[in-house]
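We emphasize that the prediction below concerns an isolated chain of 324 residues; any contacts that depend on oligomerization or on bound cofactors are therefore not represented. The input was used exactly as deposited, without trimming of termini.
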Amino acid sequence: MTSTYTTPQSPARTALSALRNEVGKAVVGQDAAVTSLVIALICRGHVLLEGVPGTAKTLLVRSFAKALRIETKRVQFTPDLMPGDITGSLIYDSRTTQFTFREGPVFTNLVLADEINRTPPKTQAALLEAMEERQVSVDGTPRLLPDPFMVAATQNPVEYEGTYPLPEAQLDRFLMKIRIDLPARDAEIEVLNRHAHGFNPQDLEAAGLRPVAGPQDLEGARRELSSVSIHPQIMAYIVDVVRASRLSPSLQIGVSPRGATAIMRTARAWAWMSGRDYVSPDDVKALAFPTLRHRVSLRPEAELEGVTTDSVIESILATVPVPR
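Result of the prediction step, given as a token string:
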């Protein structure tokens, strides 16, 4: 069904592998999250990171940005943040008696949207056009965002006080949702050891982080990604997985066609990063959780029984026949 050809190491893959290693200088035990960020960047997608306070979500994105030769800006989402604080607004210039556009922090390559679910839906929605169309419209005039452009948003679990759950329409705009769990015991000991030896999360340069990849590496990766083949049987497998989610008795909302294309994109990127020129069923399985978990909605009775979106996805992957 597939070839077994392994692609030769390319400068783009070397640079992006170095990027993953570089972030590890500041963040311990989050290799899967770093890989997901790289995949999203290659796929021109956006990432939502969820975890309880204190699990290094912000540090992870800041370290990721530090290891890239791109411009980055941070927006701290608060209950009083207005849409114009993100996209920009027209400012009256008394010298020229004209309105001029002042760009908001969204006009950058990587936006760190910190604690995105602490701001009301109206302000959350200000990112929708930017994420989907890579432009913002102010006073009816569209303004293009730079390339590359990526939103890396963090949020606390929605049951925490003072949060506003993101609507399904906005969740669907994120290519991946990464869960940042509490670290394992050994990883937490390593965190304490680094702090005991002077690690300062506010001074990433002192930790030795340096830019190791840039826009040219991303362009190279995207060109090479087009050579990664996906067999029709693998595409049919993806469709069977997402269709099974729509029939699950535990879900009131299953995966949309957008979700099917998303998992195809992320699986191809993972195959490329693994040095292969084809997508395997294991690639689909590996990327199913971060790519699909935020695109489904549990039935209330399932939640009461302790069912989780990940357990439903796991069950679907266990029952849908895998192509041979």
